[in-house]
Amino acid sequence: MKRVCAIDLGSNTVRLLVVEASGKDWRALHEDQRVTRLGQGLAATNQLDRAAMTRTVDLVAAFVHRALDLGARDIRIVATSAVREAANRAEFLAMIGSATGRQALVVSGEDEARLTLLGVSEGLPHLGGDFLLFDIGGGSTEFVLARAGRAAWAVSLRLGVVELAERFMGPGPVDAEAYDAMASEVGARLLAGLTEPVLRHGAPVLVGSAGTVTTLAALDLGLQAYDGTSVHGHRLTRRAVERLRRRLAALGLAERAALPCLEPGRADLIVPGSAICLAAFDRLGFEALVVSDRGLREGILYEILAAD
Question: Which residues neighbour 288 within 8 Å (Cβ) at sequence distance 6 or greater?
């Protein structure tokens, strides 16, 4: 038995998973996730914000210390869209190294998609490995066409909820014209960015992962506290997403933040995330998706275990 740790350093959220493992079998010892909004302002400046870098580094250092306290010696930190796109990423990576004594690995959009697929496939084995996956992130959205559990085709779009929230969301209820403009842009960007193999996928099932989809699933289930076991495998329909989108858009930021299952820092992101989700339904021809509570973080873990 050994103890290992995966840290998913995303554009919006940092996720921690510490496990005790034997071969590919593992049990979670500790899980945590916090919104640090590392990607704030990146679309406008091409630079990681100083305050965002500081709070993210502080959290990653705390996560590393927690993993060490639990006996983990193999600790993998994987950074995604915000870091790979930022002009000052070298400075940020140096800050991570100084604070933790460990090097963060910056993955490409294609590797991010591959690792996410690995986590999802292991978590939903009943799908048989044939499905279309999408993962909505803070700075990018990945689409993967899976055949027998392997990526037959993958594309990463620079389309994330942080940029959309900064451009279209305000403190009050969502303005109808602003939402329509955002939804129209999201649809156009999906149409322009998705490749023919993805658009003509022929997959029997659509799977959604990451914070937007899991939060919508928790709200659809009426959970008073987030429960990954209940959310994982939930069938989320387009009709339910549209219903939730209308409900959420009618609330102000503070009212959205007070809803159960909405983690701190996600109140302004959930409506843009819903717009991406609805556009994915429409462009890909599905009326429902299967929710995966597992994703990139678990994919990082499985890759660690497979290497031993």
Answer: 206, 235, 236, 237, 238
Q: Could you tell me the pTM of the whole model?
A: 0.86
What's the rounded Cα separation, in Å, for the pair 305 and 293? Answer: 20
Query: What number of helices (H) and strands (E) belong to the chain?
Result: 14, 11
pLDDT band at 111 (very low <50, low <70, confident <90, very high): confident
- The number of CA neighbours under 13 Å toward the Cβ of 23 is 1
Name the residue among 35, 86, 32, 80 with its Cα closest to residue 56.
35
User: 254 is written with which tokens?
Assistant: 């503070």
The H or E element containing residue 188 is helix 176-193
Q: Which residue has the higher pLDDT, 1 or 69?
A: 69
Instruction: Average the pLDDT over each of 84-98, 120-134, 174-188 and give the range with the smallest value.
Output: 120-134
Residue 213, judged by CB atoms within 10 A of its CB (0-12, 13-18, 19+), counts as buried
Largest pairwise CA distance in the chain: 56
Structural domains in the chain, sorted by start: 2-106 (3.30.420.40), 112-296 (3.30.420.150)
pLDDT, tens digit, for every residue of 269-285? Answer: 999 999 999 999 998 99
Helix (H/G/I), strand (E/B), else coil: 151 = strand
- What is the pLDDT at residue 277? 95
Average pLDDT, the chain: 90
User: DSSP state, 125?
Assistant: G
Comparing CA positions, the residue from 232, 221, 293, 290 lying closest to residue 260 is 221
Specify the DSSP element, H or E, that contains 167: helix 161-168
